């Protein structure tokens, strides 16, 4: 039986060239293939920026190279399973070209999300998703996000008047259907085909055609001129090399943490019968907190490496910060410091979902839902992740928690702003409460099954559920903010900090869950 379980670690529909490496390191072959492809993509990205730059190659050549290499990576990692990803991209392009432009966003979203859900269901109930074997759902999720985002931005640019759009929607609106090679390049390019991040179509086209950095420098210079400055004394150095090296150091730290700490704090021990039965509540709470903290670095590693790959190719430049240094975080998957030191559960959840790479698609839902925005956004997020019950427990639990966090912040925060000491105390307490709350909320996401989730909730006495519901009800105000104030709040929360970088629009909006 042990030999059978060991064999499953090295079972894949992708390439088996690196099987000896997997056996040597004791890692599943899929993880070895993933790591190898991402490191290869990193090297290819440097080559792409230096030798296939817009000055050396036409946009068609850059589109074609990025697409073919991306498809090659998919085939290497997933074998014939990559046909699922290619099929949904081709089908969606057919809808984009042939469909009614007034409804193309609806048709595309239903097709992409429907196919993704069908694949999730088949892997759970037909192919035994719990067994470690080739999992193509990650790239399919990224492609689904891109397909949906592009379709809604195309609808914004072709079917709506400018005054009907929010400022960020106007910036990202697409006014013409993309060509086939542009569409394939956007969805399947080697920079983001495995882990993302999801970029906006216009940003990707600017990058391929060589306008990505120059436009942002011009916007920064214009902003500086409005503030009374004369622009640049010399052309700024916007090389991504420092940003890439910094992110690779973060990757190494995360990888080291995973091998040393994460493996010693398994998530499943939270529902171990002996531990639940005999350990006191504070011990269970403490272990849950540290095991969740230890589980994050493996995600940070994958997301940060993907970010470094894009930056190495010259993609992801946001602008210059206040001190004149380049910001390479336009399409960043995750803000690690923002997540780890955040003081509010609502904002934490926004930033954590940014790390999951889903905020662009969910912003589409949040911005356009006529009512019940929060609930619909959470449901879409759970559906996008898959059909494991744990996902739905997490996002359904997050609804009353987010409502309670909003009500609590609105009701009491202003009482602590009178002095620096009170504000510091408030921040410390809310940070601790946020971390414990997120630990409770995210646990089912990692435990996955109903039985394990209920066991964990019982061991915690459902305390976060009870407290959040009581707080939301007790602090609920009959006077609801107007739609205008909601929109203003949404815009201010979703926009990146202009004091840090210029220009102000971002691809991965942190406002949405």
TrEMBL record:
InterPro entries per UniProt: LPLAT_7/PORCN-like, MBOAT_fam
Pfam families: MBOAT
Feature: compositional bias, Low complexity: 487-499
Biased composition, class Polar residues, residue ranges: 500-513
Sorted UniProt keywords: Acyltransferase, Endoplasmic reticulum, Membrane, Transferase, Transmembrane, Transmembrane helix
Residue ranges, annotated region (Disordered): 481-513
Membrane-crossing residue ranges in chain numbering: 32-52, 64-95, 248-269, 390-408, 428-448, 460-476
Native organism: Nothobranchius furzeri
Keyword Acyltransferase: yes
Name under which the protein is recorded: Membrane bound O-acyltransferase domain containing 1
Bilayer topology annotation: Multi-pass membrane protein
Major subcellular site: endoplasmic reticulum
GO CC terms: endoplasmic reticulum membrane
UniProt GO BP: lipid modification
GO molecular function, one term: acyltransferase activity
Localization annotation: Endoplasmic reticulum membrane
């Amino acid at each position: 039986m042990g030999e059978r379980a060991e064999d499953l670690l090295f079972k894949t529909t992708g390439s088996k060239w690196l099987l000896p490496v997997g056996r040597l390191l004791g890692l599943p072959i899929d993880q070895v293939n993933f790591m190898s492809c991402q490191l290869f993509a990193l090297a290819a990205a440097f080559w792409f920026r230096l030798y296939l730059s817009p000055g050396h190659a036409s946009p068609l050549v850059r589109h074609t190279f990025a697409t073919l290499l991306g498809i090659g990576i998919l085939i290497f990692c997933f074998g014939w399973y990559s046909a699922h990803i290619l099929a949904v991209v081709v089908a969606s392009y057919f809808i984009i070209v042939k469909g009614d432009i007034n409804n193309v966003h609806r048709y595309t979203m239903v097709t992409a999300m429907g196919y993704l859900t069908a694949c999730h269901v088949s892997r759970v109930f037909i192919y035994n998703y719990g067994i470690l074997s080739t999992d193509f759902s990650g790239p399919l999720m990224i492609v689904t996000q891109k397909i949906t985002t592009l379709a809604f931005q195309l609808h914004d640019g072709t079917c709506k008047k400018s005054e009907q759009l929010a400022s960020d929607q106007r910036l990202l609106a697409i006014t013409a259907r993309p060509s086939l090679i542009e569409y394939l390049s956007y969805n399947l390019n080697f920079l983001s085909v495995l882990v993302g991040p999801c970029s906006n179509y216009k940003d990707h086209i600017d990058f391929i055609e060589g306008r990505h950095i120059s436009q942002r420098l011009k916007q920064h210079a214009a902003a500086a001129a409005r503030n009374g400055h004369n622009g640049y004394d010399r052309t700024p150095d916007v090389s991504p090399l420092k940003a890439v090296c910094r992110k690779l150091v973060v990757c190494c730290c995360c990888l080291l943490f995973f091998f040393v700490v994460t493996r010693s704090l398994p998530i499943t021990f939270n529902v171990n019968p002996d531990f639940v039965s005999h350990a006191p509540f504070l011990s269970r709470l403490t272990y849950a907190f540290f095991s969740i903290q230890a589980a994050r670095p493996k995600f940070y590693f994958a997301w940060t490496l993907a970010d470094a790959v894009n930056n190495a190719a010259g993609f992801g430049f946001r602008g210059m910060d206040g001190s004149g240094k380049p910001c390479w975080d336009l399409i960043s998957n995750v803000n690690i410091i923002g997540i780890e030191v955040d003081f509010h559960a609502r904002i934490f959840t926004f930033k954590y979902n940014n790390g999951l790479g889903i905020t662009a698609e969910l912003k589409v839902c949040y911005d356009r839902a006529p009512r019940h925005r929060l609930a619909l956004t959470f449901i879409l997020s759970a559906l996008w992740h898959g059909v494991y019950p744990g996902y739905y427990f997490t996002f359904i639990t997050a609804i009353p928690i987010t409502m309670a966090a909003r009500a609590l912040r609105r009701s009491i925060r202003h009482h602590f702003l009178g002095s620096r000491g009170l504000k510091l105390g408030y921040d410390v307490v809310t940070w601790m409460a946020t971390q414990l709350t997120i630990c409770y909320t995210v646990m089912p996401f990692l435990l996955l099954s109903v039985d394990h989730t209920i066991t964990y909730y019982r061991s915690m006495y459902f305390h976060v559920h009870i407290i959040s519901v009581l707080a939301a009800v007790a602090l609920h105000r009959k006077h609801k903010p107007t739609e205008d104030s909601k929109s203003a709040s949404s815009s201010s929360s979703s926009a990146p900090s202009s004091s840090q970088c210029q220009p102000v629009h971002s691809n991965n909006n942190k406002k949405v869950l």
